[in-house]
Design brief:
single chain
């Protein structure tokens, strides 16, 4: 089978060569079909094979996100829904710490917002990259979650959906754009889970910046891409819910932060305050910028969002409007956050401790109720009262039994989980 056939109809209803496209002579992956094929072949195995770590990750996610709380179906735990959400976030963060060694000890700053909000251009401007570090020609078929960290050497790694790591050169990074899609009909976001870019001159040593796909379906997307854009929304959510701090980008032409932006931010349940950046400030005069900044700040605060501040910024001019220095102060706050490489493991154990304490408190409550009922029955002279008290006494005994069984099962489960986590980290 020809390699072209492997990709037929993966991201497009068009055939591989049906696009009108002017080759880019400066990029070998865009100008040479041979180079393009070799490039694509790195990401897609000819057989459906997955690494051992892939299956380990699947098992750990199942244990944390499904099995952890399932054993308490007959036990009332406080904040059970919140615990479930926290476990899902921790399982994602746990796997990312193992997969991306460069993120250990880093404060992760997530960049979120709609498509065309200018997230990639903003990061390029903020990090003062001499050349475009992140490709800016993005759309739903090409946008891939991308980390930028400071490292000892410049390196670009792509992590595939099957768990493999592929090292790229700068030309390859720049080819992961809509230009490649227009020419070949293939969007790499179907095959690449995320990118990690290590830059030795990245100015923020203790941080990692995460550029994510736009969470919404842009107007330009046709119905063929509707399902794909939905998956990008999920991808943005999964990535941003585990960041330490969030910078939310919006286009100044919107005039105000919109309700679907607010709902998406609220769904992330982030602990730390967020920074809202109104991008493309060079398109407005000072008086209008001030009005928009004030309106965005009031709208976000009225919605109950924990806002650090609102900044207007021009990526084209590489500067923040009004010399308010909000962005710098936000990054300074983030830089003071202490992140330990084992903090996820610590949080998992923290959840375990809280559950065990709650179970023991519940057991003690049932025991007190049982003892009280026993004394009351012994001193009661009414047959009707005794019958009712005996029923309540039976409920107390059943409550004690359920708690004891849950404690036994949970302790056994945690030993199994801890062993799996140790195996995963040591592997």
């Amino acid at each position: 089978m020809d390699l072209f056939d492997e990709f037929e109809d993966i991201d497009s209803q068009e055939s591989f060569l049906d696009f009108d496209y002017v080759p880019d002579p400066e990029n070998k992956y865009l100008s040479s079909e041979t180079e393009a094929l070799q490039f694509i072949a790195q990401f897609i195995p000819l057989k459906d094979t997955k690494s051992d770590s892939y299956y380990q990750e699947k098992q750990l996610k199942k244990m944390l996100e499904l099995q952890f709380l399932n054993m308490f179906q007959k036990i009332e735990l406080s904040n059970k829904a919140q615990l479930q959400q926290q476990l899902e976030m921790l399982s994602d963060k746990l796997l990312e710490q193992k997969k991306y060694n460069m993120l250990k000890g880093k404060v992760v700053i997530g960049l979120g917002g709609k498509f065309s909000a200018g997230k990639s251009k903003f990061i390029n401007s903020l990090l003062k990259a001499g050349e475009e570090l992140l490709p800016e020609d993005q759309n739903p078929t090409t946008s891939i979650p991308t980390y930028i960290v400071q490292g000892k050497m410049d390196e670009i790694n792509a992590y595939t959906n099957s768990g493999d790591k592929v090292t790229l050169d700068f030309e390859a990074l720049q080819a992961l754009t809509h230009k490649f899609y227009r020419k070949f009909g293939i969007g790499f976001s179907s095959f690449i889970h995320s990118l990690v870019i290590s830059e030795d001159d990245m100015p923020y040593s203790g941080m990692a910046f995460l550029d994510t796909p736009g969470y919404n379906k842009p107007d330009a997307v046709d119905e063929v891409q509707l399902q794909k854009s939905d998956s990008d929304q999920n991808k943005a959510y999964e990535q941003l819910r585990k960041v330490d701090y969030l910078i939310w980008l919006m286009d100044i032409e919107n005039g105000v932060i919109q309700q679907n932006d607010i709902e998406f931010i609220e769904s992330l349940n982030l602990k730390n305050p967020i920074l809202i950046v109104i991008n493309k400030a060079d398109k407005k005069i000072d008086r209008d910028i001030e009005k928009i900044v004030n309106l965005v700040n009031k709208t976000a605060e009225d919605a109950g969002i924990n806002v650090f501040g609102v900044a207007a910024y021009s990526s084209r001019e590489n500067k923040e409007w009004g010399n308010t220095d909000v962005i710098h102060r936000f990054l300074e706050l983030a830089s003071k956050t202490k992140v330990k490489s084992g903090d996820v493991m610590g949080e998992v154990h923290g959840i375990k401790t809280k559950i065990l304490e709650e179970l023991k408190v519940g057991e003690a409550s049932w025991i007190r109720s049982r003892n009280h009922l026993s004394n009351t029955i012994a001193n009661s002279e009414s047959i009707l009262d005794i019958k009712t008290l005996v029923d309540l006494y039976g409920d107390a005994l059943e409550g004690i039994r359920l708690v004891k069984r849950s404690l036994y099962q949970f302790n056994g489960y945690m030993k199994k989980l801890e062993n799996k986590l140790e195996e995963y980290y040591e592997g």
